[in-house]
Amino acid sequence: MKKLLVICVFFILFSSCKGDDKFVLRNSIGSLNKVMVVTKASDWNDELGKEIRNSFGELVLGLPQPEPLLKVSQIAPNGFGSMMKVSRNILIIGEGTKNEFYVKNNVYAQPQTIVYVYGEDVASAIETFKKNEAEIIKTFIDSDIKMTQNVFESRKVDNANYRTLQNLGIGFTIPDNYRTVDDTGDFLWLRQHLTSGIAKTGSNNILVYSIPLKEETKVAQNIVAVRDSIGEAHIPGSDQETMHMITEEAYTPFTEETIIQGNKAFETRGKWEVKNDFMAGPFINYSVIDQKNNRVIVFEGFTYAPSVNKRAFVFELEAIGKSLKIN
């Protein structure tokens, strides 16, 4: 009996290891853009929890409905057991031996991101969190972007199927549920019909094209004018003579500089509408500087999903856009 027990234990340990002697981690679980916060209930209900909720609860730019950057839930340290440890995004925060902030990946499951924030007392923990707030938020969002890209990578369509991508010499990860609306060789329009819940009448759309790079210093200020001209030329409404997509006039888009696969780019978030019609929604636009070829590559994703929150749809478009590469 004792020998059998030893054999069973050995088998369990052996089957939990890879060939390189590393333990096989469980698959993580959790919704996109959601973080489980591990901290004492007393701290969560006081200033520390308020600071986290205010920080993560900042609204995403460019959405018609107010939606937070990150949703949060809380669990006490003594409740952070085996079931909870498979959560994908975790923030562990509280009192420690010193003030510190660091990140670990794939500790209890994979993919998984755990952010640790400690202070010598609660006030110090809050201060450490506030000091690193932007990096903490970026860490969780980048983690979900990477996970989403990996999911799409497993079911992508060959870029060689699209004339425009071949002519422009670019590529990005296209999930297999996107269908071609237009592919002229200079302009690509892809569409995914949304199939769940009330959003099933809507769609996610991707536009790709290029424009000449005249003055790099003016690229950001010309983004709205460029997208409006593309909307007039390529994105008609139900009446093609009087209706086409434009940038919503009542909402000023937000633009910031970023990096896309090593290239300088501008990310613009805003709202679109159809001129002389009632269709509208959010868009995310990446204008990527291609100095070598003296041009700007434009990737735009826009969502039409009336009556529902759109954060998740735009996030998928963001993940696809950030996979864009210039060959």
Give the CATH level 1 class of the largest domain: Alpha Beta
Q: How does CATH name the architecture of the largest domain?
A: 3-Layer(aba) Sandwich
Rg over C-alpha atoms, rounded to the nearest angstrom: 23 Å
Instruction: Quote the distance from N terminus to C terminus.
Output: 63 Å
Helical coverage, percent range: 25-40%
Query: How can the largest sheet be summarized?
Result: 8 strands, antiparallel
Tell me the CATH topology of the largest domain: Protein Transport Mog1p, Chain A
SSE run: HEEHHEEEEEHHHEEEEHEEEEEHE
Structural class computed from helices and strand pairing:
alpha+beta
Parts with pLDDT < 50 across at least 5 consecutive residues: 1-21
Q: Enumerate how many helices there are, as a single number.
A: 8
Domains (count): 2
The CATH superfamily of the largest domain bears the name: Mog1/PsbP, alpha/beta/alpha sandwich
Beta strand count: 17
Anisotropy-based shape: elongated
Mean pLDDT: 91
Strand content of the residues, in percent? 25-35%
Overview of this structure, please?
The protein is an alpha+beta fold and 327 residues long. The chain folds into two domains: 18-152, 2-Layer Sandwich (Chitobiase, domain 2); 156-326, 3-Layer(aba) Sandwich (Protein Transport Mog1p, Chain A). It has eight helices and 17 strands. It has helices spanning 2-15, 41-44, 47-56, 122-131, 133-153, 163-168, 223-234, 311-321, and strands at 26-27, 34-38, 71-75, 89-95, 100-105, 109-110, 113-119, 170-171, 179-183, 188-193, 203-212, 245-247, 254-260, 263-274, 280-290, 295-304, 325-326. Strands 9, 10, 11, 12, 13, 14, 15 and 16 form an eight-stranded antiparallel sheet that branches. The protein has a five-stranded mixed sheet with strand order 3-2-4-7-5. Strands 1-6 form a two-stranded parallel sheet. Helix 5 (133-153) crosses helix 8 (311-321). The longest helix is centred in the middle third of the chain and has 21 residues, at 133-153. The radius of gyration is 23 Å and the shape is elongated.
